Amino acid sequence: MDSIKLLKRLEKPKGKIDVVIDTDTFNEIDDQYALSYLIKSEDKLNLKAIYAAPFFNEKSEGPEDGMEKSYQEIMKVLELCGREDYEKLTFKGSGNYLADEEQAVDSPAARNLAELAMEREEENPLYVVAIGAITNVASAILLKPEIIERIVLVWLGGNAHDWTDNKEFNLYQDIAAARVVFGCGVPLVQLPCAGVVSSFRTTGPELEYWLKGKNRLCNYLVETTVQEAEKMEESSCWSRVIWDVTAVAWLLDGDFMLDRIEYSPIPEYDHHYAFDKTRHIIRYVYSINRDKLFEHLFRTLAK
């Protein structure tokens, strides 16, 4: 894809668009916010599929267990949203991360993404919101490289380009897959974590004011966020980053963030970026309008 075509593809979409989301929903509480936000933004976003992504930390026994738990958590969120009709559009992802940069990890999610993308006209791309490890998306690209011309990838992954390292959860566990998506030329919007999206934080009192008692979904989000924060945070005066919402918000017409064009970085295996100004371009988010986005998020979830 040449630079002019890539620039056009990286413009914010206008009108209602078709979207899929790839999410490690059981990993943290922010995925539940993001998925609910997308579902409740149906005036702008037409959700075509949901993919469960792998993860591995203290909440799972391994990547496959993380994916399975995420699949079940997706079902819980759909029930809380009253949207069980999306269950048939939900697919299990890979049971492991990409082992190298050439071999896909086959999964129902990767195959479905490739199939949906190949149904698109290049002038009407499918938007892929990815908020976990990127193996499902990278695998779809490796299975069917032609989809690069038919999708736009919006990924919350990696840290700011000037951060001291790149040890960010979604990327450092899945570096081979990250190198595929940053290197293949797919239209890519990057929302970096440390140094950018890390400013998108909320607190217990704020959640109770805006969400508590509004509906079953909101009560679940408040209760789970408070439980997670009180377990994980070192101070009783805590704030919690709701990272993944920002990837959905980039697609909405709300002036919620600032971005610019950058050359695509190279995620290295030593957990740093390398840079090369002969590479293709990406769109890089560098600032979040925290207050404006949280107000829109809270009002949307409370509907």
From TrEMBL:
Domain of life of the native organism: Bacteria
GO cellular component terms listed in the entry, alphabetical order: cytosol
MF annotations from Gene Ontology: purine nucleosidase activity
InterPro entries according to UniProt: Inosine/uridine_hydrolase_dom, IUNH, Ribo_hydro-like
Classification via Pfam families: IU_nuc_hydro
Keyword annotations: Glycosidase, Hydrolase
Name this polypeptide is given: Inosine-uridine nucleoside N-ribohydrolase
Organism from which the protein derives: Anaerocolumna jejuensis DSM 15929
Organism placement in taxonomy: Bacteria, Bacillati, Bacillota, Clostridia, Lachnospirales
